């Protein structure tokens, strides 16, 4: 793709425009979008018009824009997350029935915890996680469980890149991660919300490495925590078994093009 005078490609600018939206900024004016994306206003107006025309952005009555349904449609075709959600959902519903608190499914992606699915109930505690939202690895039980059961090079690369911020909260991070691996789960109080506890169990592949993580968020000091961890363990094993089974449309030796 042709580069701009600043050296960034058209694809770079399109990605920055789409990345400018977030949970706190679901709709933006084109001027605000141009500032957040670092794109000239004239270019932003032109690209926004094209993205609206293709359904990747939608325009509100007041002229502001938001992410369009076509992005949701395309993202739901992702084979890895689609299979994970389909297999995990019955188990998540079981955990949600037992614990009666927020239940969520997440993966490690680009140095963040990416929330793939979430179930909630009336009366559940405050929970910052949102589907398709990102959360910090070292500030969530989900992230710590994923990091503990990540391949060693992935874990060490993350710790090297984030050494200062991790050390501020976890002075002996490797000991903590070893403890999580020994126990098979992670629980932390008040990392993000002072009155809650997060409990997370990794969903492991045949090598013992984390594919994803299943978690609950519950009131801090809840006597339900041991039962919640037991329910998460049972569900995580069931999800792992389900993911290991061939699914319709796939077969040994027939790839889906995802590598």
From TrEMBL:
Alphabetic keyword roster: DNA-binding, Transcription, Transcription regulation
Location of the HTH iclR-type domain: 8-69
Pfam families, per database record: HTH_IclR, IclR_C
InterPro entries for the chain: GAF-like_dom_sf, HTH_MetabolicPath_Reg, Tscrpt_reg_IclR_C, Tscrpt_reg_IclR_N, WH-like_DNA-bd_sf, WH_DNA-bd_sf
Ranges where the IclR-ED domain occurs: 70-245
This protein's name: IclR family transcriptional regulator
Species for this entry: Arthrobacter halodurans
């Amino acid at each position: 793709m042709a580069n701009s005078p600043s050296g960034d490609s058209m694809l770079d600018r399109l990605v920055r425009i789409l990345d400018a939206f977030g949970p706190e900024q679901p709709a933006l004016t084109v001027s605000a979008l141009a500032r957040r994306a670092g794109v000239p206003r004239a270019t932003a107006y032109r690209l926004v018009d094209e993205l609206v025309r293709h359904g990747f952005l939608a325009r509100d009555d007041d002229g502001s824009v938001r992410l369009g349904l076509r992005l949701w449609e395309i993202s739901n075709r992702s084979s890895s997350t689609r299979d994970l959600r389909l297999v995990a959902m019955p188990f998540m519903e079981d955990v949600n029935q037992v614990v009666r608190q927020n239940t969520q499914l997440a993966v490690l992606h680009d140095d963040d915890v990416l929330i793939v699915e979430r179930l909630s109930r009336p009366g559940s505690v405050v929970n910052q996680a949102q589907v398709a939202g990102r959360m910090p690895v070292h500030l969530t039980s989900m992230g710590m469980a994923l990091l503990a059961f990540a391949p060693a090079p992935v874990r060490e690369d993350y710790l090297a890149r984030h050494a200062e911020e991790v050390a501020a909260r976890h002075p002996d991070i490797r000991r903590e991660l070893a403890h999580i691996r020994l126990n098979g789960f992670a629980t932390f109080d008040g990392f993000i919300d002072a009155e809650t506890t997060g409990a997370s169990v990794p969903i492991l592949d045949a090598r013992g490495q984390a594919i994803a993580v299943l978690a609950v968020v519950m009131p801090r000091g809840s006597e339900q925590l041991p039962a919640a961890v037991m329910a998460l363990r049972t569900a995580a094993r069931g999800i792992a078994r389900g993911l290991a089974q061939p699914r319709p449309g796939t077969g040994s030796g027939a790839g889906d093009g995802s590598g």
